[in-house]
Design goal:
alpha+beta, 7 helices
Length: about 270
């Protein structure tokens, strides 16, 4: 259940300036100076400390291909999140094995509530066991960042950084690789769990967009090719993940995130 519900994934993108490319739609400058790259990442790290609440959408796709399996899974997670005091409202839609699965969760400091039938006449909420609740909120309390910026700094020589002037000005950071560093780029367990953490990675691409003025994350994208052991058979895996930040510091009241069904459950049962 936790793996299905908790989404969110992680990418790597940064920018700086040297060569300038101009197209009909935007201007892009490639940043080569290591100190400039370092400053961009440090600005993103500082921006993380300013986050009190956020609205995100995460989309994960996985394609498994082998002699005994040919399956695609898609997961979309919408999360409205206030960090202090903790209040998180999550909606998950998953398509797998030809079936659609939909559910919602709400968490605060004291409890986590779950329903398999959100927005229907059959919507019935239940309170999850304390052990599951503690695992869920521990991830939220660990960090407000999705990206392991320290790891990007370690690989700054390989990091492609672009200064882009499009509809908005932003930095784009791109890291390509061929190792399991891919799984270390994500900082939050629910994102790592969503990704196929047991995969042996052949190649990956990790890209991030950061607001130029503030350093805040706009979105990140990951693409990974690898293999997974499935019941003794080595099968191919193609995985993509995208996380969009729809808003930062837009929630102030923890109670505004509480679903009506959860309010009713608490009123009737607690």
């Amino acid at each position: 259940m936790k793996k299905i519900c908790f989404i969110l994934l992680f990418l790597v993108i940064v920018s700086s300036c040297t060569t300038k490319e101009e197209t009909e739609d935007y201007n892009m400058t490639s940043i080569e100076d290591l100190d400039e790259k370092n400053d961009i990442i440090e600005k993103a790290q500082a921006a993380v400390e300013e986050i009190q609440s956020m609205k995100t959408i995460t989309i994960l796709t996985q394609q498994f291909t082998g002699e005994s399996i040919n399956e695609e899974t898609t997961i979309q997670v919408d999360n409205n999140l206030l960090f202090d005091p903790l209040s998180s409202s999550v909606h998950v839609l998953m398509t797998t094995l030809g079936q659609n699965v939909e559910f919602s969760m709400y968490s605060n400091e004291d409890a986590t509530y779950f329903t398999e039938n959100p927005n229907t006449e059959n919507e019935v909420w239940q309170r999850l066991p304390e052990t599951e609740h503690e695992e869920i909120i521990a991830d939220y309390k660990r960090t407000t960042s999705f990206i392991n910026y320290d790891l990007l700094l370690e690989h700054i020589d390989e990091l492609v950084v672009n200064d882009v002037d499009d509809d908005i000005e932003y930095y784009e950071l791109i890291l390509n690789g061929d190792s399991n560093i891919y799984h270390q780029l994500l900082t939050q367990d629910h994102l790592v769990d969503m990704a196929e953490e047991q995969a042996s990675v052949d190649t990956f691409s990790f890209s991030i967009k950061l607001e130029k003025d503030t350093g805040h994350l706009i979105n990140f994208d990951t693409t990974m090719y690898g293999t997974v052991d499935f019941e003794g058979e080595v099968i191919s895996l193609f995985e993509t993940m995208t996380l969009y930040v729809e808003g930062i510091n837009i929630f102030e009241d923890e109670y505004s995130l509480v679903p009506v069904g959860v309010e009713q459950y608490i009123e009737n049962n607690e």
